[in-house]
Specification:
The structure holds two protein chains of two kinds. Chain A is of the alpha/beta class. Chain A is about 45% helix and about 20% strand. In chain A, strands 3-4-14-9-10-13 form a six-stranded mixed beta sheet, with helices on both faces. A four-stranded parallel beta sheet of chain A has the order 7-6-5-8, sandwiched between helices. Chain A has a two-stranded antiparallel sheet with strand order 1-2. Chain B has one domain: TIM Barrel, CATH 3.20.20. In chain B, about 40% of the residues lie in helices and about 15% in strands. Chain B has a nine-stranded parallel beta sheet. In chain B, helix 6 runs parallel beside helix 7. Chain B has twelve helices and nine strands. Chain B is α/β, with parallel strands linked by helices. Chain B starts with 6 loop residues before the first helix and ends with a helix. In chain B, strand 6, helix 8 and strand 7 form a beta-alpha-beta unit. Chain B is globular. The chains are: A alpha/beta, B alpha/beta.
């Protein structure tokens, strides 16, 4: 497991933020370390995970998909069965408890696919926080059901019309809100991105995915998988899954980014496969940018992966070659979405459908003896319109 | 190399308040921004800040965000901003570049430092580069004889305040509001106390910035700060196609 030194994973991470936020980041780091060491906090978090989130989520043997891909054993970690339909709630619950501890009255968040926005609106309803969620116009259009859910939960959904009108601009706008209202407001970042301590803290709150999955997988027949596959936008479900397995050197870890229309077309969102290091949203990591350091517009059919940056720990894991990163196109992801729905009766979100496609590729390489574990990070009801439109 | 006035001298109040104007490089377009910059530089201000546009300006409000977006749409680059700075620096008014860390990293910070100094630039402000993250870039800027201006905000702790003042040269930029750039109706209460707190930690001139747009704001800062930075209000004038010098003259009257 990699521990950040001074908020860094190797060269990556840091705190590239306006001065106004430095005090808040320091407070958050202190409170997080206190809470982590506090048994009472851990018990409370465990209780909410059990009764509110619905953990542990099951490990599922996808036998019909296994047969379809030539016989390798394929398992899903069912994060789609978390309350609100994705792994995002793991992080939102933990940070809401921290916000209570810090005495904050208001919570803000950014959202792309709307799953993180819904998770934050949900914890705000549960714990009684005022809530504002920043969302790009383009994402509000393609994820309209989640917009309606957030509003019903009592959140204000703030439309972001600047720039590319997607997750990148929603994140910038949420940070500007935080700079302005930092005294009363906690910002729940939805992924392992942003300034220190967010990448480390969100990882610690998401690692429950891999901790559970490792134990569950071993309990089946005492062996670990050959390969674990997870999709990567900012990268929180992937880090959550991978962390428990980083020391298991025989387990291949593969992160799958969004190739959009193809990495060579330039219309993609694959920061680790097609970008280079730079600073976006407060940390140094791989970024899609032009020669002048301007952040490039991205494209993916999946709103949750449509982001030009990635968590700094992923950049470290890429350079150290512990994790291999690949990219899968819109077209292949949609085909995997449909295949999984038909063969397993499980409708995956478009984000993990990228991982599902790559699992098919690896299953064919491995053959019948292969063992593959996929992080099925969310469910796909939200993507009906996008998939039917293809 | 700059033969002109150093910031430390130019921004020290002398019974008055010095005025620093901000413009976005390449706004309203590349050609006009040379003319705008020259007019501002000769309008009686103490220094001119030139923004290098960035696609994701986290510390900026809507007016400066939009100006940056317009500049980028007109093809403005870091290199073109350095050329712009060079043309304006010839007027003799100290020039301070303000941009975010990523354009500097992408350009190559050492090359940026050398070329900025060559262009006659006096100092650099990078609002998303707190002192903790400032090396090695700040060292390269200083090695090129550029002043490194760091920001203090109302949320800065006393311990960090000392460190920020120690790392700063030229002047210390005091963000008067908890927030992003953009004109406000009123300056926050507690602003004089904040200025005094900063002054107690540094012999450098202290400039107030963010939210300052009206003559009455400047009157309130007279005797409290050494200088005031006006950004969004000037950029809004340029955006409307008006001559910003009319506003600057009016603001200058309130500085005495």
């Amino acid at each position: 497991m990699s521990h950040p030194e001074h908020g860094r994973f190797g060269a990556y991470g840091g705190q590239y933020v306006p001065e106004t936020l430095m005090a808040a980041l320091g407070e958050l780091e202190d409170v997080w370390h206190e809470a982590k060491a506090d048994t009472q906090f851990q018990l409370e978090l465990a209780g909410h995970r059990r009764a509110f989130v619905g953990r542990p989520t099951p490990l599922y043997a996808a036998t019909r998909l296994s047969a379809h891909f030539g016989g390798a054993h394929i398992h899903f970690k069912r994060e789609d069965l978390c309350h609100t339909g994705a792994h995002k709630l793991n992080n939102a619950v933990g940070q809401a408890l921290l916000a209570l501890r810090m005495g904050k009255k208001r919570i803000i968040a950014e959202t792309g696919a709307g799953q993180h926005g819904v998770a934050v609106a949900t914890v705000c309803a549960r714990f009684g926080f005022e809530c504002a969620v920043y969302m790009g116009t383009e994402d509000m259009r393609r994820q309209s059901m989640n917009v309606r859910r957030m509003k019903l939960l009592g959140a204000e959904v703030v439309e972001v019309t600047a720039g590319t009108k997607t997750l990148k601009d929603a994140t910038s706008e949420a940070i500007r809100d935080w700079v302005t209202n930092v005294g009363t407001t906690h910002y729940i970042i939805g992924s392992v991105v942003g300034p220190h301590p967010y990448p480390e803290m969100v990882r610690d709150l998401q690692r429950v995915i891999g901790d559970e999955a490792r134990e569950q997988y071993l309990s089946v027949d005492g062996k670990l998988p050959d390969a674990i596959i997870a999709c990567v936008g900012g990268g929180s479900n992937a880090i959550g899954m991978f962390t428990a397995f980083l020391d298991d050197k025989d387990v291949a870890l593969i992160g799958v980014e969004a190739a959009g229309e193809g990495v060579r077309t330039g219309r993609h969102a694959a920061s680790l496969v097609g970008g280079r290091p730079g600073v976006l949203h407060g940390s140094y990591s791989y970024v899609l940018q032009d020669g002048d350091g301007q952040i490039l517009p991205t494209h993916s059919i999946s709103a949750g992966l449509d982001y030009p940056g990635v968590g700094p720990e992923h950049s470290f894991l890429r350079d150290s070659e512990r994790v291999q990163y690949v990219a899968v196109t819109d077209k292949d992801a949609v085909a995997a979405f449909k295949l999984c729905t038909r063969l397993e009766g499980i409708m995956p979100a478009l984000e993990p459908s990228h991982a599902l496609h790559h699992a098919g590729v690896m299953a064919r390489e491995f053959g019948p003896g292969g063992r593959i574990l996929i992080c099925l990070s969310g469910r796909g009801d939200k993507d009906m319109d996008s998939v039917e439109g293809v | 190399m700059s033969e002109g006035l150093r910031l430390e001298t130019a921004l020290k109040a002398d019974g008055d308040l010095k005025l620093v104007a901000y413009m976005m490089g390449g706004h309203p377009n590349r050609k006009k921004s040379v003319e705008v910059g020259r007019r501002l530089a000769t309008s009686g201000i103490a220094a001119l800040e030139i923004g290098i546009p960035h696609s994701d300006p986290l510390a900026d409000g809507p007016v400066i965000q939009r100006a940056g977006q317009v500049a980028l749409e007109h093809g403005m680059t870091v290199e073109a901003c350095l050329e712009l700075a060079s043309a304006i620096a010839k007027e003799g008014t100290p020039i301070v570049l303000m941009t975010y860390i990523n354009p500097i990293l992408a350009y190559d910070p050492r090359k940026f430092a050398a070329e900025a100094a060559q262009a006659g630039v006096t100092g650099v402000i990078v609002p998303d580069l707190p002192v903790e993250e400032s090396e090695p870039v700040a060292g390269w800027l200083r090695a090129a004889s550029l002043d490194t201006v760091f920001m203090v905000s109302p949320t800065t702790s006393l311990q960090r305040l000392q460190s920020i003042c120690d790392h700063s040269s030229g002047f210390v930029y005091c963000v008067t509001v908890t927030g992003i750039t953009g004109a406000r109706k009123e300056l926050p209460e507690g602003m004089p106390e904040l200025m005094q707190k900063v002054r107690n930690h540094t012999p450098l001139p202290v400039a107030a910035g963010f939210g300052i747009s009206r003559p009455e704001h400047l009157k309130a800062l007279l005797g409290v700060a050494d200088a005031a930075v006006v950004g969004s209000a000037i950029v809004a004038e340029i955006d409307k196609g008006r001559d910003p010098v009319v506003l600057v003259k009016e603001l200058l009257k309130a500085c005495r």
